[in-house]
Amino acid sequence: MQSTLVILAAGMASRYGSMKQTQSFGPAGETIMEYSIYDAINAGFERVVFIIREDFADTFKNIVEPKLKGKIEIDYVYQSLDKFTEGRNINLERVKPWGTAHAVLCCKGKVNLPFAVINADDYYGKDAFKKAFDFLQAQCNKKTYGVIGYELENTLSEHGSVSRGVISIDNNKMTGITERLKIYRKDNLIVDEEAQDKFFKLSADTKVSMNFFCYDSTFIDLCEEEFKKFLDKNSQELKAEFLIPTMTDYFIKSGKGIVNVIPTSSKWFGVTYKEDAPVVEKEIEKLVENKEYPDNLWK
């Protein structure tokens, strides 16, 4: 069975200030997502679907297609504010996309088999892709999804707060996922700032989602159903987002199925802020020096 990798690359990168999805980090000008695609191909994935903004399509395609042509099947999905809004009156001042679950919804008709979904600007590691591929081939179905879990302390930025989906686990099954939106180190602790002077303490080994999920294609239909309800409440909001962690939590809490937590030995890193870029470059440089990757991925 063909396994598809869906890459979320339509975000506005408001905290970063530029299109980090296509920024060069590797020695031969590779983007972060190219390392993910390279690992995915080696794990067995045969198709990649990029979710991008249509106004960015030509630039994006000119970067990825010369490198990937003949190595993996490529397809594109365009995320825009009007998709699946069914004529609702949307706040005209809204610019921000509807979020990651809406992005996955935009894959309707293009993705019809189990798939993995990742962020374009995160490095996930070889082990994570191997385990995701194996899960998609052997276990994923309409009642069983999977999430790759990472330790919280390995996913923080030294340059500002981050948003993470904190996973609750029982017997290797996710019992819930809570989106915590402002996590950072404070006085040798890791906290989520819930409100001014109100902090929720988190342990360093807390398992978090980095938006690396394995879904059956019926998840897209579930997103379509719930997006209608989301819009009923949020069509006039400027920043409300319809998110993958929220939908995965709903899948569990509504009794529709289970989500296996898939442990990985991979180390995560990514770019949330401009200041993260030199750190990412050094991490990739180390991986290349250690022969984890060639100095030119596609040569």
Task: Pick out its properties.
alpha/beta; Spore Coat Polysaccharide Biosynthesis Protein SpsA, Chain A; 7 helices
Distance between the termini: 28 Å
The percent range for helix content is: 25-40%
Number of β-strand runs: 13
Determine the CATH superfamily: Spore Coat Polysaccharide Biosynthesis Protein SpsA, Chain A
Low-pLDDT stretches are 12-18
CATH topology: Spore Coat Polysaccharide Biosynthesis Protein SpsA, Chain A
Question: How many separate helices?
Answer: 7
- Number of structural units classed as domains: 1
Instruction: Describe the sheet with the most strands.
Output: 11 strands, mixed
Named at the architecture level, the CATH assignment is Alpha-Beta Complex
Give the SSE order as H and E letters. EHEHEHEEHEEEEEEHHEEH
**What amount of the residues lies in strands?**
25-35%
* Shape call: globular
Instruction: Tell me the Rg in angstroms.
Output: 18 Å
Describe the structure.
Helix 1 crosses helix 4. About 2% of the residues have low confidence. By secondary structure, this protein is an alpha/beta fold. 28% of the residues lie in helices and 28% in strands. It is globular and about 50 Å long.
Write the layout of secondary structure elements.
Layout: E1 4-8, H1 32-43, E2 47-52, H2 57-68, E3 73-78, H3 100-105, E4 115-119, E5 122-123, H4 126-138, E6 144-151, E7 162-170, E8 173-186, E9 189-195, E10 198-202, E11 207-215, H5 218-234, H6 244-253, E12 258-263, E13 269-270, H7 277-289
Parallel strand pairs: 1-2, 1-4, 2-3, 6-12
Antiparallel strand pairs: 4-11, 5-13, 6-11, 7-8, 7-11, 8-9, 9-10
Helix pairs in contact: 1-4
